């Protein structure tokens, strides 16, 4: 009985290790600081490679900017406004907001690819730098576990097991995605190798034909000139 318990404990520990290991390989999420140049009206974008049917949740806000004039006159910092646009891999507009100092966007991905979030400062905002904080959460990190716990009336160990279950499902989906991508890359590689082989054969055939035509032309020329 004690031996079976030890085996179960070791299996759980091993499962937790693999869960945290694979989750560490998942796309990073968390707070990102973006610096925008107001004078140059520059645009900076953040992209993330996301699979389909994944929950994405993000919050952003503008940090109060302090310019040189503000420091000289000791005036309170200003909150410049920014424009935000989020697009899908196929160019679909998922979120757009102008003259914003704070906001958020949430959606469930329907396409696999690189999702882009772009920020730029509106005109006439001064010359100071604008700091934008973006809290980007994907997948399990975007799940509101407190809401899930209240809805399903679970807590403590049950809630932790539910988190582990979601982590295992995510890991399984990531492994399937990696397998599909590897299969697609192998197919592309095989098709490319086949095309290169046919191109080599065609090049060799063209070289042989051209050499034969050159030999025939030179022989005809020498015969005509009575050199041979």
What's the topology here?
Layout: H1 2-25, E1 30-37, E2 43-50, E3 55-63, H2 68-73, E4 82-87, E5 93-100, E6 102-108, E7 113-121, E8 129-138, H3 145-152, H4 157-224
Antiparallel strand pairs: 1-8, 2-7, 3-6, 3-8, 4-5, 4-7
Helix pairs in contact: 1-4
What is the N-to-C succession of helices and strands? HEEEHEEEEEHH
First-residue to last-residue Cα separation = 102 Å
- Note the overall shape: elongated
Rg on CA atoms, Å: 31 Å
| Strand line-up of the largest beta sheet | 1-8-3-6
Low-confidence stretches: 22-28, 68-73
Multimeric state: single chain
Count of DSSP E strands? 8
Describe the protein's architecture and organization.
It is a single-pass type I membrane protein. It comes from Arachis hypogaea (Peanut). Residues 43-163 form the GOLD domain. The chain crosses the membrane at residues 196-216. Belongs to the EMP24/GP25L family. This protein is an alpha+beta fold. It folds into two domains: 31-68 and 78-148, Jelly Rolls (Sandwich); 156-227. The chain contains four helices and eight strands; from the N terminus they run αβββαβββββαα. The protein has helices at 2-25, 68-73, 145-152, 157-224, and strands at residues 30-37, 43-50, 55-63, 82-87, 93-100, 102-108, 113-121, 129-138. The strands form two sheets. The chain has a four-stranded antiparallel sheet, with no helix packed on it. Strand 4 and strand 5 (93-100) form a beta hairpin. Helix 1 packs across helix 4. The longest helix is centred in the C-terminal third of the chain and has 68 residues, at 157-224. The protein is elongated. It starts with a helix and ends with a helix. Mean pLDDT is 77; it is low at 22-28 and 68-73.
């Amino acid at each position: 009985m004690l031996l079976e318990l030890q085996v179960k404990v070791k299996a759980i520990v091993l499962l937790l290790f693999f869960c945290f290991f694979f989750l560490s390989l998942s796309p990073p999420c968390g707070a990102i600081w973006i610096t925008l140049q107001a004078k140059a009206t520059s645009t900076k974008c953040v992209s993330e490679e996301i699979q389909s049917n994944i929950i994405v949740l993000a919050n952003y806000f503008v940090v109060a900017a302090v310019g040189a004039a503000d420091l000289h006159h000791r005036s309170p910092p200003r909150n410049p406004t920014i424009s935000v646009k989020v697009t899908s891999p196929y160019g679909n507009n998922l979120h757009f907001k102008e003259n914003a100092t704070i906001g958020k966007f949430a959606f469930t991905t329907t396409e696999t690819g690189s999702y882009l979030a772009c920020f730029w400062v509106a005109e006439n905002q001064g010359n100071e730098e604008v700091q934008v904080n973006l809290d980007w959460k994907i997948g399990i990190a975007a799940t509101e576990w407190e809401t899930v716990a209240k809805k399903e009336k679970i807590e403590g160990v049950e809630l932790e097991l539910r988190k582990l279950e979601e982590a295992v499902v995510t890991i399984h989906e990531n492994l399937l995605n990696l397998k599909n991508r590897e299969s697609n890359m192998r197919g592309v590689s095989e098709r490319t190798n086949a095309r290169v082989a046919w191109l080599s054969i065609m090049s060799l055939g063209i070289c042989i034909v051209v050499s034969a035509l050159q030999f025939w032309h030179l022989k005809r020329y020498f015969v005509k000139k009575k050199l041979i």
